[in-house]
Write the structure tokens for this entry.
Amino acid sequence: MTPSYPSQLLESAVGEFAKLPGIGRKTALRLVLHLLRQETADVLQLTDAVSRMKQQVKYCKVCHNISDQDCCPICSDPRRDRSTVCVVENIQDVMAIENTQQYHGLYHVLGGIISPMDGIGPNDIEIESLVNRVGKENIEEVILALSPTMEGDTTNFYIFRKLAPFSNVKITLIARGIAVGNELEYTDEVTLGRSILNRTPFEEK
Amino acid sequence: MTPSYPSQLLESAVGEFAKLPGIGRKTALRLVLHLLRQETADVLQLTDAVSRMKQQVKYCKVCHNISDQDCCPICSDPRRDRSTVCVVENIQDVMAIENTQQYHGLYHVLGGIISPMDGIGPNDIEIESLVNRVGKENIEEVILALSPTMEGDTTNFYIFRKLAPFSNVKITLIARGIAVGNELEYTDEVTLGRSILNRTPFEEK
């Protein structure tokens, strides 16, 4: 029998693409054949961008956000409120919060959350460096902005305990409640219950 | 405002991935951040595989299938029946038919189908070379295996007319009918009508 792939070069490129999350061999083949139809310069632009990023990108020394310099654009921005630190799981979360344009403080990227099931403990993520930051910098408030899951709550609790000695630092949690635009009727009980318990004063806008 | 992407390197890699078909900026970001978590060697393996494929892959001189050599593994396989040529739109179709293990002849990859809406005419695809092959090689049967769409039918008809002078060459069309496993009740009328008109003698297996 002749092999399924008529070309070894094609097969290895498909194999590499199929390693990416959410990309199966069929999709990988479609992507690779698309690249094959493009100009060589365009394809090399893709491979260059990826290898350059992988080799040159840095992580901010302060908040562990991704960055081109030693210090990320947020940490080095003088207009940012340096008294507030928002703790998030990963870089996507920083981008999601930045897109809201509602937050003007600094961040601290944990790089994961405590998840015993996946073998991730408190020492595998950037909790120690958060405690150091709170000890050294002039931080007044730490906002815990992890996903409201079992792992997120475990991590929140762990950080809360670690920061307990800094009695002058306020520790807050992002609000949990019914999502804007959702129907009350279809909201789960836990969320709806929380949103009643944590009701806020009505404000005319 | 700080930019949405904390790193230019990240942004350009995301931009390149987002050019791929079916990949939006969110998926591109997820893929790129996944690559960022992998070993540098693994990432370079991906970029190498892609750039090597793009720069070194060839197209078979005979059937225009993708290949590592001047002649693809199917065309150079002596066990293949050289009297039959199956005309397909693209490389994926060759792979799909090969996977059935029901065909042992050669192929001819058109590299597209006639589609006036997309500006693809008969001269943009490998029809001329097909006519040349039929004129030169010892071909007894040409199987038209294009998708049963308006464009596929137009292309079939065009090829049929072009090959009409070769009166000793049989031109056949892959069977159209109800797909194996489908419910009769939910099959569209055109397909069902065709499957009745083109009924075949019942054979005990």
User: Anything to note?
Assistant: The mean pLDDT of chain B is 90. Strands of chain B lie at 58-59, 66-67, 81-88, 105-109, 141-144, 170-173. The longest helix of chain B spans residues 40-56.
